[in-house]
Design a protein that fits this description.
The structure holds two protein chains of two kinds.
Chain A: E1 6-15, E2 20-30, E3 35-39, H1 46-54, E4 61-66, E5 69-70, E6 81-84, H2 96-105, H3 111-125, H4 140-152, E7 158-162, H5 170-187, E8 190-195, H6 198-204, E9 207-212, E10 215-221, H7 222-225, H8 232-237, E11 244-253, E12 256-261, E13 264-267, E14 282-287, E15 292-295, E16 302-312, E17 315-322, E18 325-332, E19 342-347, E20 353-356, E21 362-363
Helix pairs in contact in A: 2-3, 2-4
Chain B: H1 2-23, H2 32-35, H3 42-71, H4 92-100, H5 102-132, H6 140-152, H7 155-165, H8 171-180, H9 192-221, H10 224-232, H11 237-264, H12 269-274, H13 286-295, H14 300-322, H15 326-330
Amino acid sequence: MTVPKLKLVKLKKMFDNGMVAAVDGIDLSIDAGETIALLGPSGCGKSTTLNMIVGLDEPTSGDIQIDGQSILQVPAGKRDVGLVFQDYAVFTSMTVRQNLAFGLQVRGISKTKIATAVEEIAELLDMTERLHVRAKDLGGSELQRVAIGRTLVTKPAILLLDEPLSNLEAAARLAMRRELRRLQKEIGLTIIYVTHDQVEALSLADRIAVMRAGKILQVEKTSVICDSPDHVFVAGFLGSPPMNLIRGRLECREEGVVMKSDTFALRLTKTPPVDHRLSENLFTMGIRAESLTIAPAETAPLIGTVLSSEPKGAEVVLTLKVDSTRLKMTVPSTAHLSEGETTGIGVDLDSLIFFDGDTNRRIDVTL
Amino acid sequence: MRTIIHKLTPSLFQSEVAIDLQDTPLPARTSGREGSKGGMGIAATGRFLMLPGQIVSLLVLVVPLIVALYMSFTDWSPTRGSLFDAQFVGFENYSELLIWDTRFLYAVIRTILISTVCLSLEFMLGLGLAVLFLREFRGKSILFSAFLSPMMILPVVVGYTFWMLFQSNGPINQTIAFLFGSEATIEWFRSAPFALLAVVVTEVWHWTPLFFLILLSGLNAVPENPIRAAVILGANPRQVFWRVILPMLKPVIIVAFIIRSMEIIKLFDEVFMLTRGGPGSSTETISLYIYKLAFNDFQLAYGAAAAFIVLVGSLLLVHLMLRPMRKQLLEVHR
């Protein structure tokens, strides 16, 4: 078994004299060359985690290891970890060249070596023409490139990116995302990417770690995380639109099992239930927007009224009202349903997933 | 008469102005004239309301300035009747000052020398103190007030206090004797170098707080992330300070120097109280020399010419100091 490049062990950070846990005992292993996204809403402890890895914040407890060695005693700047800030934090009083050279100059590297390294990195970032420009005259995406280049030039083993695209306008964001992916392939860096934008996470990362309130809820390969959420929060956070979540009880009768909340009922089986004790517990049921289809009203298990429709390329996301529960549903844009229309809704019963009503963790339910 | 005022006042100040302020949409405010409906626009109202202030400043600033400028081209002295009877001498006062008057020349050089030494010391001390005050420590707020207090004392009082401190058997000499065990006392005001040193010490004590205050607020406003970025890139505290923090502080430093140099060029009170320019004229600053010309020798015209030379000189100086950051200061922030 290979040693992970970076390993976080029960990492914890308390603020306000131990009253608030910004990061609450997280475990995470990242392999060399891997890109992992820390995804979560603002204030979930993503940035604090980065600050601890890079050495700006000291953990309250737990350990950070690089190549199997604890780095807690190593001061910031000597950890072989680079961090790109959300606001770039470029040195505005310097030129692009001085910015790029800074990390090498403070290490006392010879002038000729610095010059070559700066030329190389400028080439990589397509900034060769702009080396003499003062950083304060640069635009958003250029500042971003300087910030990344300034870090890359020191050849860190691990690169941490703190919401690097959130300050860019949409077009620049797309271009920068492509560029980051290219860099990642060319240099083969280990990258931790912090973001609250799932599209960024999904398009850049090999794996995604979803964080909430200082805890990592799930770490999973990008390709499967949307389809196999492990936690109610992940199910409700990922996907566009996210999964429909309905909290209620399973009514087990001889003529079948019905999922029932206060305002919603869906027959799941027509055969007697395998286990009658299921009705004792609370569940959250997840229905993907893609698992819902338009069906003839006479035979459909659910009837809903269209509240709004939101076109998304070849598809349309409909918001429907079923009794007083709202459901999101993805249909081809050829299906013409306008607001206020009533339609039958078909449900792909095999794709339903269940979460325990208490722990919010996913469970297998045999009906 | 009363009724007229009564009729005028509401229409002028209430109805029209109020309508203009409320009804004119924000972007239109810049073009005040168009915004008005027959009455005064915002711009015109603004000019009207500023009129009293402008008249006062015209009377107390511009008129005396013009009178003084005229005076500097005459040989007027208050003992010789009215200014308008005085003989017009052209640039005679100016050429006398610039070419022949070595006492004036030395006063200028001395003022520049004192300013350079004082400002350098004040800057270094102020910056050092400001850096110390970035950290949290016990009693910080009390010390903060204590360090700022010298600035609030009248220059005359500061001068008088230090005059007493520097007496030949005063506390400063006693401390020196105690520290070095020597009986010899320094006659501070009897030798030129010591008298200058006393002036510098007084001035530095009095005005370091201003540098401290300006630089501290500048340091507090320096964004944190570039500093953190530099630390992560491997810079040590010294490199972070010189290469990242200080360049970001540059505009603030320049402003502090401009404020202080405009002040110190006019250095008068402390020197007057400490040495009266002596011994001889070895601590005489420009202001002190001009004062003596005007009020000891009654050469008011000659003094006015000297004052104008200093005015032009200090304008040039400020202009030069502003040059590196003119663009930065006037640039609208994006």
